[in-house]
Amino acid sequence: MKKALITGITGQDGAYLTELLLSKGYEVHGIKRRSSLFNTQRIDHMYEDPHEKNVRFKLHYGDLSDSTNIIRIIQEVQPDEIYNLGAMSHVQVSFEEPEYTAQVDGIGTLRILEAVRLLGMTEKTRIYQASTSELYGGVQGHAQSETTPFYPRSPYAVAKQYGFWITVNYREAYNMYACNGILFNHESPLRGETFVTRKITRAVARIGLGLQDKVYLGNLDAQRDWGHAKDYVEAMWLILQQDKAEDFVIATGVTTRIRDFVRMSFAEIGVELEFKGEGASETGVVVSSSNPEFPVEVGKEVVCVDPRYFRPTEVDLLLGDPTKAMTQLGWQPKYDLKALVNDMMIADIDLFRRDQVLAKSGHQILNYYE
Ligand code: NDP
Ligand code: GDR
């Protein structure tokens, strides 16, 4: 039985990757941070009672800022594969926590690689590094591939650039099987609530159910190449199953504006929007509403721009070229953007129907501010 160790197991990708590896018969170990509240909601459905025999899913307390902890866990688990998904992953927050982001997203990667080297496990253990399309940041005007030079535009992206190159360097210097997956944005019903897609689908579900009036967003002109996280964790696994360690771009090859993601999400509840104005004064107004289950008033302003969400340096357009992954790995995404939006909207409507029941019986419903 192969053993995998996943950092960032409590995050979106960690949860889907765990499901995938368990289904392939792996023993899966995860590193979770100690927090003052439970932070395992995304993986609780896979929990196995550690008192039982033949448990295939185990969690260890740890943190990518703590080298000794990382070394001890890797020594104890003796993984065949490590997926380094742990990170301070929010681009805007990285402008507020640049040093911590560098520690975890940059040096954290070095800690994993160096632990494997120091423990003499370079021939046994394969390493996947969660690299990102944010590395291309300022490279605009054409699709981005494995040969496109980097131009990071945030403390997050700069830290991830260190993670990318230290992975390449350890591969070349110590002959390690260490690879970067340069993944473009991928989303799902498990996406963190403050990333733009999930912020939108949650808000649209709440507006449709009468729990919220409007949503405040930042730059509506940005363009992203969005795929489904379920498809992208398949690619992570494939990257570690090749004869030779290499880096791969994982993307759909289609890019869409934030404004159009908003439109598509409202369309899922039968609401058509018109956008008026420009920049900070742009608004999204309802022009028709056809589903009686989600009665949103025509003429209502449901989207506003709040410059608080503008970034000091923005990445205007991301568009990946996944040709190498498709030809060499045989990777093919199953979801297109419409299917992704549909999946997220169904999940968020279901989630907030419970709040609607509570609201109707007089309970106070919390508001969400980010
Ligand atoms: P999430 O933000 O959902 O999950 C991040 C995970 O990292 C969480 O489990 C979090 O733990 C953990 N983590 C945060 N800080 C530390 C730390 N100091 N030590 C150990 N673990 C830590 O991210 P995603 O699942 O979306 O992304 C996974 C990885 O892929 C990240 O590295 C991200 O930067 C990268 N990536 C993501 C893309 C995307 O579109 N989703 C695209 C390209 C790259 P906790 O739950 O306790 O907060
Ligand atoms: P990103 O994702 O920065 O691409 O990083 P995010 O969803 O945060 O932003 C995408 C684009 O939407 C614009 N935007 C807003 N963003 C947020 N969060 N909130 C808003 O209200 C809002 N309004 C507009 C942003 O300006 C941006 O242009 C994600 C993360 O998962 C990274 O970890 C990963 O590496 C990259 O994707 C690929």
Helix and strand arrangement:
Blueprint: E1 3-7, H1 12-23, E2 27-32, E3 57-61, H2 67-77, E4 81-84, H3 91-96, H4 98-118, E5 126-132, H5 155-174, E6 178-183, E7 186-187, H6 196-208, E8 215-217, E9 223-224, E10 227-228, H7 229-239, E11 248-250, E12 256-257, H8 258-267, E13 271-276, E14 283-289, E15 301-305, H9 323-329, H10 337-360
Parallel strand pairs: 1-2, 1-4, 2-3, 4-5, 5-6, 6-11, 7-10, 8-15
Antiparallel strand pairs: 9-12, 13-14, 14-15
Helix pairs in contact: 1-7, 2-4, 4-5, 6-8, 6-10
Short description:
The protein is an alpha/beta fold and 370 residues long.
Question: Care to describe what's here?
Answer:
36% of the residues lie in helices and 18% in strands. The protein has two domains: 3-183, Rossmann fold; 196-223 and 257-314 and 336-360, UDP-galactose 4-epimerase, domain 1, CATH 3.90.25.10. With 370 residues, the protein is of the alpha/beta class. The model has no long low-confidence stretch (mean pLDDT 96). A hairpin with a 6-residue loop joins strand 13 and strand 14 (283-289). The strands form four sheets. A seven-stranded parallel beta sheet has the order 3-2-1-4-5-6-11, sandwiched between helices. It has a four-stranded mixed beta sheet with strand order 8-15-14-13. A two-stranded parallel sheet has the order 7-10. The structure holds NADPH dihydro-nicotinamide-adenine-dinucleotide phosphate (NDP) and guanosine-5'-diphosphate-rhamnose. Residues 7-14, 31, 33, 35, 39, 63-65, 85-89, 104, 130, 132, 183, 185-186, 192 line the site of NADPH dihydro-nicotinamide-adenine-dinucleotide phosphate (NDP). It is an enzyme of class 4 (lyase). Its cofactor is NADP(+). Catalyzes the conversion of GDP-D-mannose to GDP-4-dehydro-6-deoxy-D-mannose. Residues 5-344 form the NAD(P)-binding domain.
